[in-house]
Each structure stands twice: as structure tokens, then as C-alpha cells.
Amino acid sequence: MTEQKRPRPGQLPRPTRPVRPAVGPRGPPRAGGGRGPVRPPHGPPAGAALRLGRPKPRLRLLSVLLTLVMAAFVIRLVQVQIVDATTLDAKADVNRYQPVQIAAQRGDITDRDGVPLATTVDAYDITADPYLFTPGQAKVSGAPQKAAKLLAPLLGGDAKTIAAQLATPRSRYVLLARGRSPQVWNQVKALQNKLAGQASEHGLPGLLNGVLAEPTSKRVYPNGTLAAGVLGFVNAAQRGAGGLEAEFDKELTGRPGTMTYAQSGGQMIPQAGIQEQAAVPGTDVELTLDRDIQWAAQNAITDQVKKSKADRGYVVVQDVRSGQVLAMADAPGFDPNDLADANPAALGNPALQDAYEPGSVSKLMSMSAVINQGVATPLTHVVVPPTLQRGDRVFHDDTDHGTEDLTLAGVLAESSNMGTIMATGQLGSTQAQADRVLYSYLKKFGIGDPTGLDFPGETPGILAAPQDWSTSQQYTIPFGQGLSVNAMQATSIYSTIANGGVRVTPSLVRGTTGPDGRFTPASAPRRTRVVTAATAKSVTQMLESVVGSEMGTGTMAQIPGYQVAGKTGTANRVDPATGRYHGYTSSFMGFAPADDPRVTVSCVIQNPTVGSYFGGSICGPVFKQVMEFALKTLQVPPSGAQAPQVPVTFDPGTPARSGKPAR
């Protein structure tokens, strides 16, 4: 066999000449006759060169496809740029422009002289990006724990809690502390800069870079616990949640503004412009409270509640002529700046929210009804027996005594329950009629109705209709058991007598100052005549005998240089937990100067457990302390004369000078 040469690299092998078949040049005969060449059954002969198909059809197909694709792009472009341009542009603006709400400055609450009692200051919410504390980003092992140890003293939080927040997986935002002062944020920033400067030395490169701050505002109460029960408090969202903060939340909040700016990738684009609608600040509310008198009242009641180990106590100071509340203090109180440590039971305003049986201070209304109806005078003789039976119940006074010959003034001075029952029995020819007359006076004095302050959670007290009075209530309501009031209602009773028999609806707000700086005074209070001026004068003289007479129960309320009219009260207390009588409600209420009344002060102490529980003993001194301070603060001159001495007893052989004896 002949050896075939190998082709050189890059050279195709030469085709070999085909070997003809042995049958001859024309091959075997065809089926239909004749002969033809022999063809291989499939494909070209072995070793023959390949021939490509024509390219033009393929190019035409490719051109058609490209044309269709370009046409689709053009059609879509026309749709985007022309047909749907407006719609798509509006959709893009939604993502391009970022709206941000601007919080409005909450209005201040001030005392009558404009001194802030509640105001708003700049603050920061301290936040963090936990992602920046992960090992790959912080480049410090145990970054959350180390950072928390540094931040806890500054933020006033727990290091373990902060560390857990910083280690929150798959989170880019956590709130570490809310409403911190600018000073706190400055301390955090100073620590950030310090660590950045000393990174190489301490191995803490940018440890606190993930700590950020969001500007916000914070409600603060500059005087701490002062008037907290009246002011109330705000919640975490800086919305009123108690007291006047809740009552005037809409006015104080104002109207928030908006700012819209262009952004890309979360960053503001200053060149794109900013649209801003300014926030409207809240309205300032000016109260009738006098901060100094409020301070004196709060100190006095706090000290006495502690000394008596009582459940609570409250003092109300009211301007006799205008009805304005000058002070409303309670104890124990709370600090609205620190609600986390406050006792939940102390977060209200008990002077308006506690309903209690007033006891003997309520006798003022009974005596006013008796005198105003003309059935008796302060000198009317009342023979008070050792005991008094009405129906199936036997009544007696707080202290045992024999038969006493008292005037009506003496009944009030000695706070005789039996004498009061006997006197009010003269209001009608039957007991049912007497009940209806007494009830009408109680309603005119404001018992059983809201005070008019519209304070959140205020109780109107309880006063049943006379036809619903039980046999016992027919005789206990005249001396203050069987009905309930709040301290403001009780104070208003005494202010009504001090104001010549005209009841002025109490008020806590003097006016408001809007964002434009214009002051709008509060509406004039409603005035209602309850008894005649002559009746009010007679009852005032009777109240003076309570304080000035040796037989009176309120001698500890005497104030040198001033005539004082007042009344003590010691009532059985209904325990709110059991609904049964347990302990006592002690009180003293009065006004001064009695010859030209200016100020009414009331003191109520619930369930004193140490020392005396009589109202004259524990509330009389509180009344004196607060009243003296108020008179000096308001620069009220002393009385011009001695208090008139109204007889409190009578000689059995002497006929009554006026009115018919009550027996």
C-alpha cells in the first residue's frame, strides 16, 4: 500500500480520486432500462467539499425581526413620552418628592400672671441603626454591648436593654430614648467625636456612628408637682391624656405643617426646591390659678395628710366675687415630668373626681333654707334632747349631752345633728313637703349637677329625688349624710353665702391667647340667686359663731385681725373598695373677711388614721394657714370691727324673739 503524505499544518488534505466501480463507466442498468452513474445513498461523496446555503434569506429574516423589535420600542417610547406622559410624571413625583409633617408647637398653660405651668421645649429622640453595629460594619467584637455600656449613663436606660436593641437582627431603626434634652444629645455627639479621635488607641473605630437623633419636642412642667392634678399630663405622642391637657387638647395642639422636598436614594436634592406649609402653633391657655397661693395650699395639705397618715386630702381656694379658682391642690400628688414613677391612683384630680358625703359642712344649706323660708331666725329657740327618735331610728349627736337650750345659731355652732333635723322639719307641714323644699335648695346650691368646669372625669355627686329618699335619708340628708358632693361643689356653697346669696359658676380659665397674640377672655360665668342677701348675712353671722364662740367647733380657724366665717365637718366615710362605712371624712370650709368676703377656702381629708379625726382639729389649721397666706397675697385689709356676737343659747324662761321654737 502506498504511504499517503500527511498535510502540513493549516493545509487541507487533498481529495483522493474516486475509484470507479468494476461494472463499467455507466454503472448498472436503471429499473426502467438504460444505465446511469452510481450515486451514494446519502450525502455527497466521501471527501467532497461542503457548500454553504445562500445568506440572503437569512438576512431578510433577521432584518424583519430587528424591525419588529425596534417598532415595539418606538411604540412604547411614544406611549411613555406622549400618550401617558402626564400620568407617569405624576407617579414619578410620588416617589421623587418626600412629604414630611412639621409638628406644631403645643401651647403653654400659665397661671393668672402668665407664669408657665406647662410648656414645650426642644428635644431629641435618640435612635440607632443596628446594621452599623453588626460585626461586618462595626469592626469591633461585641459592638452592641460596648456601645450600650457607654450610652446607658447618658440616656438613663438599662445597658442590657440598649444592647438588645442594638443587636436587633435585620433592622435598620430602633428607638433608644424618647424626648431627651439637647444637652443629652450634645453629650452623645461629644462621645462620638471622642471615640472617632481615639479609635486607633482604644480599638473602637466609629463605635457610636450608628447612633442618631430625630428633632422633636417635649412637654415639661417647670414647677414639678405644683397643680399637677389640675394640669394633667400628655402621653408619648404629646397629646393630652389627663386634666386640662386633655380638656383643651385641640386648642393646645395647634395645626401641623408640611414640607415637601425632592429626594434621590433617601437624600434631599436642594436644587429641586422645597415646598413648605408652616405649622400653626397651639393656643396658650391662661388659668385663674395663682401660683403662690397654689404653692401654699399644696404644702399645707401635703403636710397634714402625711401627719394624719390619711388616704388623701384636697384644698380649694376660690375668689368669692368672680367665682375664679385661685388654687386646687391635692395630696398625695404626682410629677407629670416623671409619670413612670407616679402612683396610678394619684394621677387624677380628687377635688373634682372624688364623691364623698360632706357631713356637717352641708348644714349650711339646711340653715339657709330654714331662714330663707322664714320659718326661723338665728335666734329661734331649739330645745335639743339627749336623743331623737324618727321612725324606727334613734339619732344622737357626736358627743353625749343632756337637754340643751340652743338658738338656731347655737345648733350650727355646736354642729348638732338633732337640732338640724328639728329645724328642717319646719320647712313643711309634712315631712314629705319639707323634703321637697330642702331638695329645691340643695339643687340651687349646685348639688347633684356638674360644677361648670367641664373637667375630665368630674363627678356631679349624688342627690336622689325627694320621693326616692328612704326613711333614713329624710333625716340624714339635712346634716350631710345620704348625699354626696365633690370638694369644688362644697366650696361653691360657702362662696354663694359669702357673695350675698348669689352663686357664681366656678371657673378655672381666664382666657386664651391665639397664635396671632390676641387674648380672648373667657365667657362671663353664670350667676344665680339662691337665697336673699338678708338670709346670706344672717347665715354668715351664724358661721362666725362657729369660729368665734367658745362653744363653736371651729375655733382653731381663727385669724387675728380678720372676721372668719366657717363650718367644720366630720362624716362617716364610704370606703370605695367595699361600699361600706369605714373611717371618716374630715373637713373645714369658710370665708374671710366675714364682714366683706373676698376668699373662700375648703379643706377635706379622707380617712385620717393618726391623731384626731374631727374636722376642726385637722382641717381647721390647714384652713387658717392657707387663708392667711391668700389674704396677704391678695393684699386684703383686715376687718374694721369685731365680729357680732350672736347668742348660741337661750334662757328657758325667755320667749323666743323671732321664729317659732323647734321641738
Automatic annotation (TrEMBL):
Penicillin-binding protein dimerisation domain location? 102-267
**Subcellular localization:** Membrane
Q: Which SUPFAM superfamilies match?
A: beta-lactamase/transpeptidase-like, Penicillin binding protein dimerisation domain
Which stretches of sequence are listed as region Disordered?
1-51, 638-663
UniProt keyword list: Membrane, Transmembrane, Transmembrane helix
Where are the membrane-spanning stretches? 59-78
Q: Which residues form the Penicillin-binding protein transpeptidase domain?
A: 313-628
Protein name, please? Penicillin-binding protein 2
Q: Which family does it belong to?
A: Belongs to the transpeptidase family.
Family matches, as Pfam families: PBP_dimer (PF03717), Transpeptidase (PF00905)
